[in-house]
Amino acid sequence: MTKTFHRILALVLAIIIGYSIATNLYFNQRYLASKYGSERLLSVADTVAIINQIPVGSTLCDPAKKRKRKERGQYDYIDTFMTKRELKITNACPSGSYYIQPKFKMAIQMNDLFPIFTLVKTPPLDRPMTPLLETPEAYLYKIE
């Protein structure tokens, strides 16, 4: 093998490794910004703070409470083991119930190598609601 071939091979490998490092850093930055940036996901601590604003024994609307989540959804777990406010969590969303709407949700797209994390705005619930509380991460509504 010639000296020129070794140099070309080393240059190609350096370019591939540099590209890999750059893309990994880019996707790590996007992921960390979605968890800790100004436009971030709703954390457990945020959810606990919002649930503590809801009266004891109230009904909390969770449209995602279906299939496997029917028994232990996120709000069930937080209320049972952390806030202990004896909330009734339902996906039916009756009038007078409360609804926590996160401002953003994680859209996970898969490609051939690794997931791509993107934040998207959460669409509003298609019901008449009265806003009760706004935090940097979510809204608390009472369904009319």
Description of the molecule:
This protein has 144 residues and is an alpha/beta fold. Helices cover 36% and strands 26% of the residues. It has a five-stranded mixed beta sheet with strand order 2-1-3-7-6, with helices on one face. The chain has a two-stranded antiparallel sheet with strand order 4-5. Helix 2 packs across helix 3 (74-83). The termini are far apart.
The overall pLDDT average reads 88
Strand content: 25-35%
Q: What's the main sheet like?
A: 5 strands, mixed
Structural class: alpha/beta
Number of beta strands: 7
Give the helix proportion (percent range): 25-40%
Model regions low in confidence, pLDDT < 50 over at least 5 residues: none
H/E order of the elements? HHEHEEEEEE
Radius of gyration: 22 Å
- Terminal Cα separation, in Å? 78 Å
Shape: elongated
Q: With helices defined by DSSP (H or I, 4 residues minimum), what is the helix count? A: 3
* Strand order of the biggest β-sheet: 2-1-3-7-6
Short description:
By secondary structure, the protein is α/β, with parallel strands linked by helices. It has helices spanning 3-36, 44-51, 74-83, and strands at 59-61, 88-90, 98-102, 104-110, 115-121, 129-134, 138-143. The relative contact order is 0.17.
